Amino acid sequence: MKKLLNIILLVTTVVGVFAVLTAYKGSNTQRIGIGYGIVHKQYIGESVVFLNNSGKLADILFEEYFTPAQFTHEEAGKTFPENADIIEAGSKYIKYIKIAGHLFTGAANEEGNAVVYSGKVNGELVSDLTAWLKDDSRTQADYKWYIDACKNETVKYMRDASAELDVPVSYYNSNTMLQKTSSDYWGNSGTSYTIGIGHPNNMSAIKSWTKKNMDNAAWTNELQAGDTPKVDGIVQLNSGGQISAITGATLSGDTWQYLNVIKRAYQAAKQNN
């Protein structure tokens, strides 16, 4: 089983959750659920939860996706050609991006130090796409729309409002699906840029802790920022207000967001017959 999981994790990075679902066919996995949400304040998280034939938590997969606030400006190793429409806002930002066929137009914010992108999402006018994605009112379908666009590699830089730019989308050397685990962010890929125990070890700590605690029926409510969540002794804060003291991660006060996304996937799996 351990060998199978390692293969699945490798395949997931390349072709997404569909490959995971296919790989698990024929195993003792009974139900699968997927959950989405904002994690670490600014990324879109996706969790896949697998339940065994007894309905108990068997495994957790997790991925994060960069948003337009991150991947739309120049950085080390990535520059935009001079003939592309560019906005100067503390850095060089591409003016137009296309996501799943929807065109978004950038404009400098009031401070002039970043660019926000406006456009339409399935007919809805969106004045700031990143803020829209981070809004607590977003539905699971909204997050899925964005993540599917990333996984299908339909997020594109545009030379102008009509022509695509021959520069692959990326952030911190990520793949074109904009997956954080493929990037050099926060100690991924063996890079020296590591804070605390690094991103891979943080995720491992969260998943390991959750596997031991998720099946406790008392954990029914989602956690909230600024709360002092105590769910029948399952989740408690340390004196510094960090859930991560229990999970072993070093994500400070953001661990609750990861736990909520995993919880949504868990609940979806429980509902799938």
What's the SSE blueprint?
Layout: H1 2-15, H2 17-23, E1 29-39, E2 43-52, E3 57-65, H3 68-71, E4 86-88, E5 92-94, E6 96-99, E7 102-108, E8 115-121, E9 124-126, H4 129-134, H5 140-151, E10 155-158, H6 199-213, H7 244-247, H8 255-271
Antiparallel strand pairs: 1-2, 2-3, 4-5, 6-7, 6-10, 7-8, 8-9
Task: For the structure shown, list the relevant keywords.
Sufe protein. Chain: A, 273 residues, disordered N terminus, 8 helices, 2 domains, 5-stranded antiparallel sheet, single chain
Structure description:
This protein is an alpha+beta fold and 273 residues long. The chain has 2 domains: 29-65 and 191-271, Sufe protein. Chain: A (Alpha-Beta Complex); 68-170, no CATH class. It is built from 8 helices and 10 strands. It has a 5-stranded antiparallel beta sheet. Strand 1 (29-39) and strand 2 form a beta hairpin. Helix 1 (2-15) packs antiparallel against helix 2. The radius of gyration is 19 Å and the shape is globular. The protein starts with a helix and ends with a helix. Mean pLDDT is 83; it is low at 1-15, 22-26 and 228-232.
Query: Any idea of the CATH topology of the largest domain?
Result: Sufe protein. Chain: A
User: Which class best fits the helix and strand makeup?
Assistant: alpha+beta
> How many strand segments?
10
Query: What about the largest sheet?
Result: 5 strands, antiparallel
User: Average pLDDT value?
Assistant: 83
Kindly estimate the percentage of residues that lie in beta strands according to DSSP: 15-25%
The CATH architecture name of the largest domain reads: Alpha-Beta Complex
**What is the approximate shape?**
globular
Q: For the largest beta sheet, what order do the strands appear in spatially? A: 9-8-7-6-10
Q: In which range does the helix fraction lie?
A: 25-40%
- How many helices does DSSP assign? 8
Number of separate structural domains: 2
Could you give the order of the helices and strands? HHEEEHEEEEEEHHEHHH
Oligomer: single chain
